[in-house]
Each structure stands twice: as structure tokens, then as C-alpha cells.
């Protein structure tokens, strides 16, 4: 631990921030004509432009120095050596092993290989109709039942890779315990041709079990055959014994391991819906893209390391500029669920307040991640990005080739994306607004009074991540990029990115509340507010 060095780099970064807060980004481009060239990185089919940031070479060097003072390389190497870096749960963190990026670990690797082979056989079986329902009709619908990491990864990737999907297999998702979610899916499902996948690392998650039992009851009721469960259900979990009790046949049970965190589990059996959607061969391409990003993260110098640079910038804005939120704006309809996916990845990993050493931390350790697909956001919250007094750093993600090259749509999409990042950077001055209004023939007084409303401060930072096309491989690389970015941030904040104790208290209180809901007597066990709200529900429920 090099605490004095870290403290002096922090002080230097405070000074760098002060200096840069008075410098326009456009000036930074003038001062450093090479900037656009210098501030770009290519890796694993992705191209990052980070030149539109409130940073210059000197501040970036200090940030990289800070990463070194935090022994980032040693932490990264410990991850790739498979050390038990999830210290609060005494677990290894081996999701890169699932894509072949961790050497050794022979026995775990053998288990992974066996499981992947079983996934491959299952996928081919379903596609060929050899694995079918009780009336021997091939499956046409797959409904994945899971939540959190057992939902967001499969759902996001299936949407992202829709252009590669098998036409005759519709993969759907149920996650919410709200019955409106599952009932809508069941309403349109054909019991003879529907396969349910129950995905739960623990197989104890309340929402998933409630939905799984509802689906099971529906299937038995519709077919009149309790034995239908055996053929119409598959499951994924670390708790294979609990799955067996549910009535699922062993060939339909896929293991996962406690060394894969839920939000890092798309590479494991949790990816089965994706493998069914796009086929096993493309599923391996998806792994290959991620493995390429793993190699880049391991080998590239920190200054040219894509996940490291993204993490340093995110840290820079959170810690030194007070930017508590960061937006993720994919300019691709198929990537519409990517912000929600990264929300869990970043916020469940790094939303912490205790350091690895057990000290109480007082500063924010994860930005709030939000966003939606471009161009929809432009007609909604981009107003705040451009004129609000909050600075929101943005990551734009832009595949250059469309899967649907129709007319001028892609030209428009690309122009919109690049137009937004430039507008955020250059803004519009009062003089420019007045001139513009004058040119639009507005009289001088009216122009002067309207112009302040039309100015934009500019200097709003953004990264742009390009890729040739959204493919299984580039999607894999993109996900691995953000996984490693989150890991680097956790090293800088000195926290464990791989536990999530914060979600437990709400679950415990929910369990404690449940018996009072069906009680005869009004509830007085909790605080006055909770008692009153719960009793309101009791009176509606029992009326
Ligand atoms: O896969 P499981 O065990 O059902 O858990 C689902 C999700 O619940 C969480 O544990 C949070 O409650 C996530 O970390 C996880 O992805």
C-alpha cells in the first residue's frame, strides 16, 4: 500500500481538476492537435474515442499513476490467477474462466467443458426436435424464469442478437413477482410447445420460485399431465438437489458454480436461453469476443487499456467533478436493454460503503447508471444533458453497420449520435444564440431576451465506442469491457465488487412482513407507517 503516493496523486488530481474546470474541451483540442489520435484505443473489435473528455495528457497521467499506486496490475493478475478475491464470501471470481481466460484450474475447467458440451447437445436437441414436449411436437417458445443476473444477461443478449435468432424459436422472459408479468406470457403460450427454463443460482429466490410454481401449475392444468413437468422444464442452478425436488429430469438440469457472480453469469449455463436463441456455434463466438477483451485487459499497458481508461474516467468524474450519474446511450435498437444490464453490473457490484479492509467509506463508490437507446432519449432527457446544471458524462455506443440497412436510417442514426456528442462538447454561446435569432429575422430586443434560453454550456464529456457491427463476438467484447471497467473501479475505491449484502435486508423484512398480511388481527409489529400501509392492503385483500 503506497498511501503517501496515493495522497499526493489525489492532491495533484484536485489541482488538475481546478485547472481543467476553467478550460473548454475545444481549447484542449487546439492545444493538442494530436488529441483525437492519442485518445483512442482499439481492442476486440471495439474502437473507443475518449478525446471528448475534460482531461488532458497530464491529468490522465496522474490518473494512471493513481491506478498504479492502487496496485491495479497486481489486483488484475490476482483476478486472472483465480484467487479468492471475493473475500466477504470467501469465493473465487472466475467468470473469465468460462471463456477460457484463466489458466490452470483443471478440475473446474473440466466441469465447465462438460457443461458446455451438455448445453451444446441440449441446444441441438431442441432445434432438431429430438428434445420435445409430451406430444412430441418441437418446442416453439422458451420462457426463461429468473431475476437479476439470471434474467438481465439472457434478456439483454437475446434482444441484442435478435438478428441471429432462429426464426422458429421465440425466447421470452419472466422476472417480476408481479403476476401480470407471467400471466401475460402464459396467455399467449401453447402448453404443447413451450419449454420453461428456471434460472436461479441459489434456487431460493422468492420471485423466481413463485413464477416457476405458477408456470408448473399452469402446465399441469393445461395438459392434465403432472409428468409434463419433466419434459417441459429445464433448470440452471448451483443447487441441483433443489431442482430435482421440483420434478425436473436430470438431463434438463444444468449446473453453475458459486465462483460465478449472478451479474457475471451470462457466460455460464445462465446463457442457455441465448444459446437456444442463436445456436451453440454463435454462443461460442460470443465467448470468443469476451476472451479477446480479457486478453487486452491483461496485456495492454494501462495507458492504452480500454477498460482501465473507461474506469479511470468514470472515477475522475465521480470523485473529482461530483458527477454522481453517468448515462449509457447505445445508438442501436438491439442494445436497448444494455443500460439496464450495466445498471446491475455496476451498481450491484460497486454500490458499497465499506472498504475491503472494513473501513467505513464516506464517498460514492458507484455512479448511478442510467440511459436508453438513441435516438429515443434525445426527445426525452437529453434536454437535461444539454442544458441542465448537472454534468452527466455519457458513453455513446455505436455499431456502424445496421442489421437492417433500409434507406437512410443508418445515416440518420449515426449523424444523430455524432451530433449529440459534438453538441454536448461545443454547446452554444450567448453570442451565437443572438446571431442565430437575428438570422432568423427576430428583432434585436426579442432576440436578446430569448437568447439566454437557447444557450448551452457545452463542455459535457462523453466517450464513443464504435464497432463495425453488433455481432455475438463484439457483444461479448462489449460486456467484458464493462465487467472489467467495474472491476477497475472497485480497485480504485478499495471495495469488493463481487458481493451484494445490501440486497439482503429488504428480503429479510419482506419475509417478516408476509405472515402479517394473512393474519386475522391488524398488524402492529412494525413502525407506524409500515403498519398502516400493510393494514390498508389487508383490508383490500380481505374485503
Ligand atoms: O440467481 P438467483 O440466485 O435467483 O439470484 C438472482 C439475483 O438476486 C441477487 O442475489 C440480488 O438479490 C442478484 O445478485 C442475483 O443476480
UniProtKB/TrEMBL annotation:
GO cellular component: cytosol
CDD domains in UniProt: SIS_PGI_1, SIS_PGI_2
Enzyme nomenclature, EC number: 5.3.1.9
Entry keyword annotation includes Calcium: no
Coiled-coil features, chain-numbered ranges: none
GO MF terms held by the record: carbohydrate derivative binding; glucose-6-phosphate isomerase activity; monosaccharide binding
Catalytic activity: alpha-D-glucose 6-phosphate = beta-D-fructose 6-phosphate
UniProt pathway annotation: Carbohydrate biosynthesis; gluconeogenesis; Carbohydrate degradation; glycolysis; D-glyceraldehyde 3-phosphate and glycerone phosphate from D-glucose: step 2/4
Intracellular or extracellular location(s): Cytoplasm
Active site: 348 (proton donor), 379, 507
Function: Catalyzes the reversible isomerization of glucose-6-phosphate to fructose-6-phosphate.
Protein name: Glucose-6-phosphate isomerase
Protein's organism: Microbulbifer aggregans
Record gene name: pgi_3
Amino acid at each position: 500500500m503506497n498511501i503517501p503516493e496515493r495522497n499526493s496523486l489525489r492532491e495533484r488530481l484536485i489541482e488538475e481538476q481546478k485547472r481543467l474546470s476553467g478550460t473548454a474541451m475545444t481549447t484542449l483540442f487546439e492545444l493538442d492537435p494530436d488529441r483525437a489520435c492519442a485518445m483512442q484505443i482499439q481492442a476486440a473489435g471495439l474502437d473507443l474515442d475518449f478525446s471528448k473528455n475534460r482531461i488532458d495528457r497530464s491529468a490522465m497521467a496522474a490518473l494512471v499513476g493513481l491506478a498504479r499506486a492502487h496496485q491495479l496490475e497486481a489486483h488484475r493478475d490476482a483476478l486472472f490467477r483465480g484467487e479468492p478475491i471475493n473475500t466477504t464470501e470467501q469465493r473465487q471470481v472466475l467468470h473469465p474462466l468460462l471463456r477460457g481466460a484463466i489458466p490452470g484450474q483443471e478440475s473446474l475447467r473440466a466441469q465447465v467443458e462438460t457443461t458446455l458440451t451438455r448445453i451444446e447437445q441440449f441446444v441441438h436437441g431442441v432445434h432438431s426436435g429430438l428434445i420435445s414436449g409430451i406430444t412430441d411436437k418441437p418446442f416453439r417458445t422458451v420462457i426463461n424464469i429468473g431475476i437479476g443476473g439470471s434474467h438481465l444477461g439472457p434478456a439483454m443478449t437475446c434482444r441484442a442478437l435478435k438478428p441471429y435468432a432462429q426464426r422458429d424459436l421465440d425466447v421470452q422472459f419472466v422476472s417480476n413477482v408481479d403476476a401480470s408479468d407471467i400471466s401475460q406470457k402464459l396467455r399467449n403460450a401453447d402448453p404443447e410447445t413451450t419449454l420453461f427454463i428456471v434460472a436461479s443460482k441459489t434456487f431460493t429466490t422468492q420471485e423466481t420460485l413463485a413464477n416457476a410454481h405458477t408456470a408448473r401449475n399452469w402446465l399441469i392444468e393445461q395438459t392434465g399431465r403432472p409428468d409434463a413437468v419433466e419434459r417441459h422444464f429445464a433448470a440452471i442452478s448451483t443447487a441441483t438437489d433443489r431442482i430435482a425436488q421440483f420434478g425436473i429430469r436430470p438431463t434438463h438440469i444444468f449446473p453453475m458454480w458459486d465462483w460465478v457472480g449472478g451479474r457475471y453469469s451470462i457466460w455460464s449455463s445462465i446463457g442457455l436461453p441465448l444459446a437456444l436463441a442463436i445456436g451453440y456455434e454463435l454462443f461460442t463466438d460470443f465467448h470468443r469476443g469476451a476472451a479477446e477483451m480479457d486478453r487486452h485487459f491483461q496485456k495492454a499497458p494501462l495507458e492504452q487499456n480500454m477498460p482501465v481508461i473507461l474506469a479511470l474516467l468514470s472515477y475522475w468524474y465521480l470523485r473529482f467533478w461530483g458527477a454522481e450519474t453517468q448515462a449509457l446511450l447505445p445508438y442501436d435498437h438491439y442494445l436497448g436493454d444494455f443500460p439496464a444490464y450495466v445498471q446491475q453490473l455496476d451498481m450491484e457490484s460497486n454500490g458499497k460503503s465499506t472498504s475491503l479492509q472494513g473501513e467505513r467509506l464516506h464517498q460514492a463508490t458507484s455512479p448511478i447508471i442510467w440511459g436508453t437507446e438513441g435516438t429515443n432519449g434525445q426527445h426525452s432527457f437529453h434536454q437535461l444533458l444539454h442544458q441542465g446544471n448537472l454534468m452527466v458524462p455519457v458513453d455513446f455506443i455505436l455499431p456502424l453497420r445496421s442489421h437492417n440497412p433500409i434507406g437512410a436510417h443508418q445515416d440518420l442514426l449515426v449523424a444523430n449520435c455524432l451530433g449529440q456528442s459534438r453538441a454536448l462538447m461545443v454547446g452554444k454561446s450567448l453570442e451565437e444564440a443572438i446571431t442565430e435569432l437575428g438570422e432568423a429575422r427576430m428583432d434585436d430586443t426579442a432576440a436578446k431576451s430569448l437568447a439566454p434560453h437557447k444557450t448551452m454550456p457545452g463542455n459535457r464529456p462523453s466517450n464513443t465506442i464504435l464497432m463495425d457491427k453488433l455481432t455475438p463476438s463484439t457483444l461479448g467484447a462489449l460486456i467484458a469491457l464493462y465487467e472489467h471497467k467495474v472491476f477497475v473501479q472497485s480497485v480504485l475505491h478499495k471495495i469488493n465488487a463481487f458481493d451484494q449484502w445490501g440486497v439482503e435486508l429488504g428480503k429479510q423484512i419482506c419475509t417478516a412482513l408476509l405472515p402479517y398480511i394473512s393474519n386475522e388481527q391488524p398488524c402492529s409489529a412494525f413502525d407506524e407507517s409500515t403498519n398502516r400501509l400493510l393494514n390498508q392492503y389487508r383490508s383490500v385483500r380481505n374485503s
